[in-house]
Amino acid sequence: MTIRFDDRVVIVTGAGNGLGRSHALQFAERGAKVVVNDFGGAADGTGGSSEPAEKVVAEIAAAGGEALAHGADVTNVAQVDDMIAKAIEKWGRIDILVNNAGILRDASFQKTSPEDFEAVVRVHLLGSAICAHAVWPHMKEAGFGRIILTASTSGVYGNFGQSGYGAAKTAMIGLMNVLTIEGAKYGIHVNTLIPGAATRMTEDLLPPAIREVMQPSAVSPLVLFMASDDGPSRAILAAGSGGYARTYILETEGIYLPPEEQTPDAIAARFDELSDKSTLHEYEDGSGEFMKFVGKAAAHLGVKLG
Ligand code: NAD
User: Fold this and answer.
1) How many CA atoms lie within 13 A of 223 on its CB side?
2) What pLDDT band is residue 205 in, cutting at 50, 70 and 90?
3) Atom 8, ligand 1: which residue's CA is nearest?
4) How far is the CA of 273 from the centre of ligand 1 (A)?
5) What was the pLDDT predicted at 10?
6) Which residues contact 75 (CB under 8 A, 6 or more apart)?
7) Looking at residue 204, what is its pLDDT?
8) Is the CB of 20 under 6 A from ligand 1?
9) The pTM is what?
10) Is the CB of 150 under 6 A from ligand 1?
11) What is the pLDDT of residue 306?
12) Is 100 in the pocket of ligand 1 (CB under 6 A)?
């Protein structure tokens, strides 16, 4: 095994079931000390029990690994702070955070109550931000950190009945982009996972034959790669059924319209041209994108930039 996590401390949220459990087991197998976080509720986020996290800790211990169970609700700042404090107390460091905890409350948009929409956004988006915020000072001080955010095809491409979920999942990419920029000088890498696996979350969504080939254990190796010392940063990586791929956010070169031509009709007339996929380009930050437009306008208007 070349990629190892000896002396690394990993927090995996929502690790009592499904994908998180699989990530935790594979990290432990490669030497990591693992905080198995799970509040232990139902797939819709109701209820709560310490049993799922404790069971995974027992599995890790039985295989000769080291782990600690913590039942923090990732949306609760005080509980997350307590989890970080317990990990630091036991192992003195936190190297890797895998934000995996999640819930589903599927319903068509019209039938989704504001409460359900908020509950889903709260766990996925705020929960991820709260955990990242809590580990950030420790990673910054150590000059090393790996944060993995869990998105979904539901956000990137859309799935019926998952408006709040899809919105929260795509927000992971926004969070990753900014944290990557802010964390670069401290050795903090941030990446986003788009997983696909047969878990209780997808129980009602996938037919049995499909579920058979979608094992969570096939997704975790990608998470371990992202968390490794030489792993990437700012990558959106997808995994499912043994398939692995990379997702990019790209923008066309577009067109420039001088002030007297800046009309909806001119845009309509050149919509195919501004949509031309052969000119797709990736930007490293927001200013790279808007400077493309500023550059063209300045050239046309004869304005000298800087
Ligand atoms: P799962 O229901 O098996 O596991 C999710 C775990 O998160 C549960 O153990 C649950 O108790 C825990 N959790 C929920 N809310 C929590 C909270 N507030 N605090 C702490 N723990 C909490 O589901 P899964 O399929 O393993 O999902 C894991 C992650 O992967 C989720 O973020 C999910 O949205 C994402 N995802 C899964 C798939 C898939 O195909 N299974 C696809 C795309 C994204």
Assistant:
1) 34
2) confident
3) 14
4) 41
5) 98
6) 122, 123, 126, 127, 130
7) 82
8) yes
9) 0.97
10) yes
11) 83
12) yes
pLDDT of residue 39: 97
Q: How confident is the model at residue 176 (pLDDT cuts 50, 70, 90)?
A: very high
pLDDT one-digit tens code per residue, 229-270: 999 999 999 999 999 999 999 999 999 999 999 999 999 999
Residue 179 has pLDDT above 80, yes or no: yes
Which residue has tokens 């930050």? 285
Active site residue 157: no
Q: Is the separation of the CB atoms in 155 and 169 below 8 Å?
A: yes
106 CB less than 6 Å from ligand 1?
Answer: no
Residue 180 alpha carbon to ligand 1 centre in Å: 23
Measured from the CA of 124, which atom of ligand 1 is nearest?
Answer: 32
* CA of 99, closest atom in ligand 1: 32
Distances (CA, A) of 290 to 39, 166, 254, 263, 295: 43, 26, 12, 20, 9
Residue with CA closest to ligand 1 atom 29: 100
Instruction: Please report the atom of ligand 1 found closest to the CA of residue 41.
Output: 11
**Ligand 1 contacts CB of residue 112 (under 6 A):** no
pLDDT on residue 51 = 96
Q: What is the reported pLDDT for 81?
A: 98
Q: Which pLDDT score, from 0 to 100, does residue 184 have? A: 98
